[in-house]
Structures are given as structure tokens and as C-alpha cells.
Design a protein that fits this description.
There is one protein chain. Helix content is 39%, strand content 38%. The chain has helices at 2-38, 42-45, 67-77, 81-84, and strands at 56-59, 62-65, 86-98, 101-111, 118-129, 132-142. It has a 6-stranded mixed sheet. The longest helix is centred in the first third of the chain and has 37 residues, at 2-38. The protein starts with a helix and ends with a strand.
Length: 145
Amino acid sequence: MKSPIIFLFLLSSIQLIAQDKDIESCLNLMQIQQDAWNKGDIPAFMEGYWKNEGLKFIGAKGITQGWQNTLDRYLKGYPDRQTMGTLTFGYLAKEKISKKIIHFVGTYHLSREGMEDAKGVWSLLFKKIKGEWLIIADHSSADEG
């Protein structure tokens, strides 16, 4: 009688460890992005995004569709190191929706010398594609005021 209970406990423990590993992979990806941003390297920052026309970036100016269009949007919006500032992410929620989908919600803060700081909230949808966690949708909103 104890064997099925022990088996179920072990199985659920293994699933939790796998879930934590996947969430940790996404957090590591975001740390790499933050580091790339803070070095002024937008193309390296973009390596965390799905290189596909299906990528969606949703912001105040609407939806940008596709990896190249999203890269171009970032390069236009942040043309120099001063505008880019120093990026810090904060995390509010994370949820593994399925084996291949994880949702994160958080905050960002750009400390900018000689300019007003920028801050806001974001929601990222990660998908495991060919064994790699990538951002497939990014909804970022700046705080007003």
C-alpha cells in the first residue's frame, strides 16, 4: 500500500524539480539580457527573443511583429548608451503554464545619467523551442508620470 504513495511523491518531486529548472533557465536568460543591455549591446539583448516573424512586442505604440522589426524598434528607441541607461529587472510573478510555456510578470527600471529615469512593467511569455527557452511575446508598458 505504501509503494504507490511513495511513487506518487517521488514523481511529483521530480516534476517540481523540472519546473524549477525551467523557470531558472528563463531567469538566467533574463540575466544575460540585462547584462547585454547594460553593456550597450542590443543585438545580444535580442538573443533571448524568438528569431521568427511570430514574435510579438506589445507596447504603447502598438504591436511590433517579428524579430527583425523588434530589433529595429529597440535600435531606434535607444540610439545610444545614455538613452539605454542601466537596466534592472524586478520579478512579480512566474508561472509554468505547461511543459513548454512559462509566463513572467515584472518591472523594469532604466537609470539614466543626465536624463529622466524610465520604469514600467512587463509581461513575458517564454516558449521552449528546440530545447531552448525563448521569449515569444513581450508586453512592456512605461509608467506614466
